[in-house]
Amino acid sequence: MQHAKRLWNLRLLPLLIVLMGASVARAQAPAAxxxxxxxxxxxxxxxxxxxxILGTWPRAERARPAWSYLRGRLLERQGEMAxxxxxxSFDDAGLPEGVRLELSxxxxxxxxxxxxxxxxxxxxxxxxxxxxxTAA
Length: 136
Known about the structure:
Elements: H1 2-22, H2 35-43, H3 47-56, H4 59-62, H5 65-77, H6 81-87, H7 97-113, H8 117-129
Helix pairs in contact: 1-5, 2-3, 3-5, 5-6, 6-7, 7-8
């Protein structure tokens, strides 16, 4: 089980780095933002505490793609699929195509699990097409 947790964390790290690098705002994070405390909670799988930390950050910081993505992943782990789908609904313009498709897939799966089938079909069609904005 511990090995699976490490693999999840290792798989998450490259995507977070890509998302953070793609953010338009490269300004220094406000002093109230504690990245290390958040990272520690995520590594410990203390998802409720990690979400609480994210909730205390300024709205502009929380809205950055990396943090929206992380919030969605944490909500997925908690089984909060409708909230995860909303977290995955951020503006993905400027992100690499592969990341954008992965977001469509995650959003579609979360919508499907939340019982929002019509919305899920649209998001999953985008992911299945292999090209953003072109349904299969």
